[in-house]
Design brief:
The structure holds two protein chains of two kinds.
Chain A (H helix, E strand, L loop, with lengths): L1 H21 L4 H8 L5 H20 L14 H15 L3 H9 L5 H22 L10
Helix pairs in contact in A: 1-5, 5-6
Chain B lengths: L11 H19 L5 H9 L4 H11 L2 H16 L1 H13 L16 H22 L10 H7 L2 H22 L3 H8 L5 H25 L1
Helix pairs in contact in B: 2-6, 4-5, 9-10
Classes of the chains: A mainly alpha, B mainly alpha.
Amino acid sequence: MIGLHLRFAIYGLVFGFALSRIGFGDFAEVHKMFVFEDLRLFLTFAGGVAVSMIGFITLAKLSQIPRRRFNPGSVVGGVLFGAGWAVTGACPSIVLVQLGQGHVSALATLAGVIIGVALYRPLHQRYLPWELDSCSM
Amino acid sequence: MPSWVFHDYWPWWLGAIFFGGFVVGIWLLERRLLGVSGSYAAAIELTRQEDEAARRLDEADPQALDEALLRATLEAFGPEAVAEFEKEMAATPSDTAAVAAPRKLLPRSVHVTFLVMLAVGGAIGALAQGTWQLRFDLGVVHEALTGGGVTSLLVLGFGGVLVGLGTRMAGGCTSGHGLSGCSRLVPTSLVSTGTFFGTAIATSFLLEVLAR
């Protein structure tokens, strides 16, 4: 159990450090990506997908990796998330990186994310007919 | 020494190598796919669906469970299948029947550790770069685009709710869908990633127009 905590503590630390050093925690950089003023972050992301693809193909047995069924919430969920990302500069990991960087106002974003995540399952189960999908590790 | 070692943000290729190495590395080390919004759900939600299912299974009377399973098997496959299965089970020693079990869900506390350490990692990154600063806004660009002061804070809170609801509804975010999913061409991840990037681009242009 301590080993598990230690490993995931290291993963979090490394990921947070890199996201900050890449510049994903800087609203101005993220905004410049979205309005095509600077493609560096786009290239970082697209390149990350490409490197992951090469890595999965060469190092892993693709058939062993679970593939997820199509989720009917992909589009509407993506619209909500995209709008939120544009106005806060934050995806779920970035809001924590912003906080770590000393940006206290990210607490407002984090409060919103927590409220949104806490509200979603009950809302989904009340109003939507399909099964809730998750990418939980 | 290149400027990105201590000062500037990393060049795109270095970030790309890091992202790829990280996502694939987590899979190889843990047999888990990186997905941060899932960690939020696991850390925050009062009951996890899977916990709920496991609890009901634990509490069920084992004999009643066996009988129900047998009934369902008979219904689906007929009595020949059951007879064949019993013959096979009798022929194979029980320990070789074990197959690789699916990964158990991480405990809630491990998700919390991971999320807290993301913030610590961000702090170390900013300190290493010399840009760590206690501040109450997200910078001049954000202030100009969202009205500044309290208005900007309200936008952040509202935007945060959208991020929370949206990532849960889509079943993933930039890491789970964007990196883990797109790199394996999973359709639901490609659709979701295209949608959230597209919407973020449109919203950002809208912000520019409205702020003018």
